[in-house]
Each structure stands twice: as structure tokens, then as C-alpha cells.
Amino acid sequence: MKEIIILKNDRTGDLFVSLNAINKIIFKHKKDKLTIFLSNINHKFSFLFPNINKKVIPMNLRILNKIYLFFYLLLKKIDTIYILTPKNFYYYLPFFFRNIKFYAITIKGKKNRPNKLLLKYLENYVVIDRKNLKKRKSSYLTQEELIPINNENFALNNFQINHKVDHNFVYPEKYIFFHYKHNLFKNLLNWELDKIVNMLNLFSKNSYHVLFSSELYHKKINNFFTNEFNTYDYNSGEKFITNNKKIFFLKDIDGYNLFDAVNKSSKVICPEGIISHMSYFLKKPHLALIHFKLNNLQDFKDQLISCKEWFPPNNYKYTMLKKDFNRSIKKIKSRIDF
After folding, report:
1. For residue 245, how far is the Cα from the chain centroid?
2. Residue 152 counted as domain residue
3. Which of 66, 199, 229, 279 is least buried, going by the fewest C-beta atoms within 10 A?
4. SS3 for 56?
5. At 243, is the secondary structure helix, strand, or coil?
6. Alpha-helix residue ranges (DSSP H) falling in 204-254
7. SS3 278
8. Same domain, 110 and 41
């Protein structure tokens, strides 16, 4: 039995972008011993990998974390390592561990990761281009190409999760899932919370219920939504009914509970990020909400390159929000079928 390592200690949204590639690795090495290194941020979604070993290291590696990882590889008989988090430190490992096969995603940008000298120590690699505006494949597909699978029985997203919810909240049969992101709605668009209330009320004026989440443990925002809407608190397990609206605030929902709520939804409306990538992975009809603060031409180019990299390959609906609330609502209504 070979020992295989997957390095994926980064943000949660990045984890979902890599999830198809990770599933291919698991399928390819189903007879081997696999260990995935997750970060202190994305490890709450470790339930996605029920049958492999999990280890947690910080997203931002410090010197002690690097020493730990170096000696871990030194003392173990590792056959293959997949670098799915493009950290500079990881690209030096193939130079020191010549007996291990390294497969990696690499970055072409203002500063290449790794440099050309270190590329030759990789068994195989794919390139994510952050430099040119030319048409390119989504990072989803680029990462999958690192692990070629020639088996017609293999199907992406064909996985089972042996995990149970740890709450007693019963979801409606048909609901829209929405996520409030303070940085987008308040900091960039300058929408006050009363605008969000109006938007949620609009979503509920149809045959759907509305369930929504917000910033974790943000006291001020949580208090506002709790006072305005019916609420289920995932920390206390208590339900608070304040009105007869078809809207429920899911206070401090996270991890598997969040994944489960998105999975059971009928439609998803959310800022581009972890929830949009999660809903894409789960094949949910969704609308990603986007707004860019562009000060110059370079900002425009950087955002365009970012979109080309992180957006899924196809069937990905999104709309660009304006600071004008009414105009933005019209755009949302035109992009999603209520």
C-alpha cells in the first residue's frame, strides 16, 4: 500500500474549487493510504473526505509548521504528494525529497510559483495563468487535468457523506438560500441593513420560503437579523418565532449544517465566494452576486483575470450589482426564475 499526501491548507472557497480534483485523486489511489492536510479554516469541511486521514496545519505556515512537515516527510515512506495549495515552501520539498513524486498546480503571474529551476523536480504540473487576459480554462478544470483518469465508471461528485445534522430545525420543502456578506453589501455597495430586509421580503413574495445566513458571530448584525426575522440559533439549538413571514435567519450556521442547508435548497442567491462554489459543486440553481471597486485599468484587468480563474466552467449565473439598490434588484429578478 502506497502512502499519498494531498496538501490543501487554504481557504474554504479554494477547497471547493479543488474538490473535483481531490475526488479524482481519491479515486485514483483508492487502494492506497491517503492523508489530506487541511487548514485551520477549511478543516470544518473534512466530512467531505470520510475515508481518508485528515491533518490540520495553519493556512499561513510558520517556521515550526514547516519544520514539522519536513520531518513528517522525512520519517514517513511517502510515494506521492499532490500540491493543491501553491505555497512557495511546498515547491522546495521536491528538491530535498527526490524519492517522492510531486504533482502540483503552479502559478504564472507577476511572481511565478515556483521558479523555473524548481519546476524540473516536479513529476507533473499544471499552470494557472494570472498574467494574461487571454481566454483560459477555469481553475476547476485546470486542477482536474493534473490527475488524468481513464475510467468510464468514474463520475465527479459521486460521493457519499456519512454525516448527520446536529440540530432539530426542519427545513421547508421549497426554499431559497441567501447569504449576507457585510463586505459586499455594506462596505462596497453602501447598502444599509434595511435594504437587505427589503430584498429578503421580495424573495419571499412567491412560492418559496427564504433561509439565510450571515457573518459568523458578528454580534451587531446577528442582533439586527434576530430582531427582524424568525431565527434558529445553531449554537443554542433554540428557535425564535417573531412574525409570520416565510423567512428564517440561520444564526451562526457553519460546517456540515451549512453544506446541508445549501444542499437541500431549491435555489441559492449569494455573493461570489464559498457559498456560490458550494452550490455549483452541489449542482444547485444559483445566482452569484458580484461588485468590483475599480479605480484604474489595472484593477479592471486584475478582476477580469480573477474571474476567468475562479469561475466554474459553465452554467454559472452571476450578476454585477450597482450601488443603486433598485437597479440591482431589477437585475437580480431578471437573472433568476422565481
Report:
1. 30
2. no
3. 66
4. strand
5. coil
6. 219-228
7. helix
8. yes
- Rounded Cα distance, 181 and 218, in Å: 11
Does one domain contain both 140 and 179? no
142: cell is 485546470
Q: Are 328 and 321 in contact (CB under 8 A)?
A: yes
330 membership: H or E segment, kind and range: helix 325-335
Assessment of whether the complete model's pTM goes beyond 0.85: yes
Q: In this model, does residue 185 exceed pLDDT 60?
A: yes
% of the chain at pLDDT higher than 90: 65
* Residue 318 maps to a domain: yes
pLDDT grade for 297, boundaries at 50, 70 and 90: low
Does residue 169 form part of some domain? no
Grid coordinates standing for 202? 421580495
- Quick check: is 153 in a domain? no
pLDDT tens string 49-91: 988 999 999 999 999 999 999 999 999 999 999 999 999 999 9
Single out the residue of 202, 197, 201 nearest to residue 180, CA to CA: 197
Task: Please answer whether residues 251 and 222 qualify as being in contact, where contact means their C-beta atoms are separated by less than 8 angstroms.
Answer: yes
Sign of torsion, CA 41 282 3 80? negative
